[in-house]
Design goal:
The mean pLDDT is about 85. This protein folds into two domains: about 10-50; about 50-80. About 60% of the residues lie in helices and about 0% in strands. By secondary structure, the protein is mainly α. About 0% of the residues are buried. It has four helices and no strands.
């Protein structure tokens, strides 16, 4: 069976769920069947090369980010 996922025993899944205080279904879904990267992970990956920016470029990027957040917050506060 190529590409098949072999799950640990029910006892192991149960023990891990208790140790990490998560539901067994969540553990199985997130650890064994997770195929897509989370949005947070994808966003962080897109900024891995941020150190290549000059200080001026970084400051400009930071200013744009802050402005976008202000716009988003004003829309939330105004009910839009």
């Amino acid at each position: 069976m190529t590409g098949a996922v072999r799950l640990p025993s029910i006892e192991v899944i149960s023990a891990l769920s208790k140790i990490f205080a998560v539901e067994p279904a969540w553990l199985v879904d997130e650890i064994f069947f997770r195929t897509k990267k989370s949005v947070k992970s994808q966003r962080l990956e897109s900024f891995q090369d941020i150190e290549l920016l000059t200080e001026g470029q970084f400051e400009a990027l930071l200013a744009v980010k802050q402005e976008l957040l202000k716009i988003g917050m004003s829309k939330v506060n105004n009910g839009n």
